[in-house]
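Cross-posted from the bioinformatics board.
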Amino acid sequence: MSHGTLLLVALLLPFIGSLAAGFLPTHARNTAAILAGSVAVAGIGISVWLYTSLADGAPVQFWLSWLPMLGLDFTLRLDGLAWLFALLIFGIGALVVLYARYYMSREDPVPRFFSFLLAFMGSMVGIVLSGNLIQLVFFWELTSLFSFLLIGYWHHTASARDGARMALTVTGTGGLCLLVGVLLIGRIVGSYDIDQVLESRDLIIQSDLYVPALVLILLGAFTKSAQFPFHFWLPHAMTAPTPVSAYLHSATMVKAGIFLLMRLWPVMSGTDAWFYLVVPAGLVTLLLGAFIAIFQQDLKGLLAYSTISHLGLITLLLGLGSPLAAVAAIFHTLNHAIFKASLFMAAGIIDHETGTRDLRKLSGLYRYMPITATLAMVAAAAMAGVPLVNGFISKEMFFAEAVAEHTGSLLDDSLPYWATLAGVFSVTYSLRFILGVFFGPPPVNLPHRPHEPAHWMRFPIELLVLICLLIGIVPSLTVGPLLATAVKGLLDATPPYYSLALWHGFNLPLMMSLIAMAGGVVLYLGLRRYLESGIEGPPILRDFKGQRIFEKVLATLSWQWARAGEATLGTRRLQPQMRIVITLAVVAALAPFIANGAVGTGDMPGTPLPPGFALLWLVGGICALGAAYQAKYHRFAALVLVGGAGLVTCVTFAWLSAPDLAVTQLLVEIVTTVLLLLGLRWLPKRIENVYPSRPPLKVLLRRYIDLTIACALGGLMAFLAYCLMTRPLTQSVSRFFVERAYSEGGGTNIINVILVDFRGFDTMGEIVVLCLAGLTVFALLRRFRPAPESIEQPEQQRIQHAYDVATPDRSPGDTVADYMLIPRLIMHWLFPVIAVMAVYLFMRGHDLPGGGFAAGITLSIAFVVQYMASGTRWVEDHLRVLPLRWMGMGLLTSCATGMGSWWFGYPFLTSHFQYVELPYIGKVPAASALVFDLGVFALVVGATVLILIALAHQSLRSSRAAQASEGGE
Amino acid sequence: MEIVLSIGIGLFTASGVWLLLRPRTYQVIIGLSLLSYAVNLFIFAMAGGGLRVDGPPILAPGGVGDPAKIADPIPQALVLTAIVIGFAMTALFLVVLLAARGRTGTDHVDGREPD
């Protein structure tokens, strides 16, 4: 397997694993954990395997053409930086999986947890491996989505839901900003390919779009990495199960923002804009996070704010813009991931074994869990930056960079003081964590009696703490080569000289460290009384909550403003909306005339007007106006009039050389009329004269406005139609169809050849729509509840029924049977006639007017006629119509015909034709398009019959309902 | 002929739009039917070469068609599709209308009688 393919495997494995875990039984805790663990271990294996190939500095690539016309390819790209992150994602991931196996309770749906976790892992890997910025944003948004699911895993608690929603809103919004920023970068560089972007530093920083792009990208990174003022979502995400916190807030989620800053660091940093946007954000986050962390009463809250603070530190380092600072940033990212993951896990163990994370309740746990306590102490020392642990070295590098000169501004000059202050804070909260939890008097009133956890639950912490110590004591032997690889990925040119040693002599950074440690202890002792009073949160800042502001903003935006906007601009009533839509249509139709000046009619000679045509349209116009006038009170009359208008349309088609349209229109007209007749029964009785005297002025005004709109649009349509008809259409593809219909489609009916051959794919879509409409009708009617006053039998049926019951020698239903005797007989006999007609229309369709549509509707009319003649019950006793099967077979036939051409190596729906000589009948066309048309035919029959039968059945249902209610009385 | 057909299309449109703006669902469905006739005729009338009385787009067997002698097939193919889809939409709308009537107890388009 090539190295590139391995990258693809590393990306896909977590997603495949996620899918597989999703299908496991709800309580398959071990299976799911083993699955997730193997995926993570395989990922580690691939990362380690690929390490050697990075030695020469060229990134490993995988490339797949995606949207070449837009210059977008699916590319995976592994350089040193991506490698380090991938290793972290898989490495910490594997440990978190092991930990979660013991942390998660037997009652939780654990496979779902692992499914989300793996999908999240895959999305993170996608971010770091993306070789294309758009692709990166895609995976970026995926991490937002899956972190939402992970944080909200215990969705039965409101705080989990709120925390998840807040994280999604903040990071998702940031992701959208990032997308726009990336699009700007793509516009500047002309490509989204990361390699190409990385070569275009000058182009980017000199562009006018540099600052907007930078701001947008930073918004994305800062929201993700919880930088001030977007930091507030992170503490609320602590409602997630602790393994999630350990994973998301140490090595992954929040590090995605850091990764993005690093990825674009070579091309975007080093400018004033970068310095003044990134450094203050990082500095404020560093100090504020550390300060608030001191005052947390929740163990995980303390760690969350500490995470924010450390992320601020890394951001600050990246903001400084010097290569050495970037090296320190990478190194601290690694160190922070290691010690923070172990601290979260330790907090989780404490929570798991004691039942609480509240620092006010916890105390003196050392005597119950000495090993965990020792491990936590080492990790906390790393967090505080104590020598011999990994955090110390990167913190020293940070101090050295803080002292170094960058821009010479006031901000730059004051950095050493701020850095030392942040060091003081971090020592204080680390002390608080350790002393508060593990020392002091034995705890009272704990939910559980504390004890050491299962060994394998503690194992991940042991391993991480061991790594902390190894890096802290012999940095150049352990982490040196890894760091060098990552730095090479970040800084293409010669990496700066840096030394990973424990002892650099007695210099300024060491002084700062000593001051920070001493200051931290003093501050802790000074604050002890305040902290023990049990107040949550720091003084002053306590009243200033990000969450509350967030919620207020959200409520204002999505509720108050939306409501106000709806109240002033919107309406829930249909009529004003229709008015607006139609008025817009009028405006849109008029706009070209206004823009280009008035356009007169064309000069093509008109067709002479036969008197019959004029008379026809006189009738048509009267029908239309009559229908418009009668539709309110005389529904049946309106239906007849609309039918008249339809017939006029139909005759017009026939007159003007469109026999196919005429046939189809006539048949559809019949079916539509039957359909509407069936529907009439369920409409309420109309009360005439709602307004006994004169309608109120408002109503009159509304009607005049509507009349004006209708007349305007009607006039406009007439004018447009006339203009179009009097000028020649010069360019059209018609010639192509006319000339090729016979030679390539094998039919003389051009319309049919277009439908089933040239544009067969459109027809395919059309029958699918028909199919969906039929199914929707069917589904809607299954749950149909008629209005109460429509349930009782119609008056005519009641009278007949009463007469039949009253007359001794008659049984109910006789009267209607007598009335319908002759029509019924004729209609029964008509069935085969109409069916033959349908077959005839179908067969001749390719050469003469007809075809699948017309034939299908004809056959459905044959069925409907039987329903009308004999009633639903009789027909269904004698005839089994299975419309759903007709539809299914029709769709399958059409698809199969279309796919048949693949067999011969042609594109979908390529047709083949020839004529076959049949005895007695003669030459018949045998085109594959005919089979396709057969599918169309079957589907049309099925859908039409389904719709009509579904409606017809309602009368049965209502009579049953009426009987039931009578029986009940 | 053109002028008569144009006026006819205009009348159908005007009646259809008037009904679309009415408050009762049945009026709207009738209006939609009228409007779809109008639109179908409008598309149909856009044929290249104008209206044609004696030239259905059907070829003599074995022949190659002459576009100058027969009606433009493209608008016809479009309208044929539109007729069938129009039928499906009418059916769907009718059922929605009935379901809304059953559920809300009124046939007003807003699902409740105006105050």
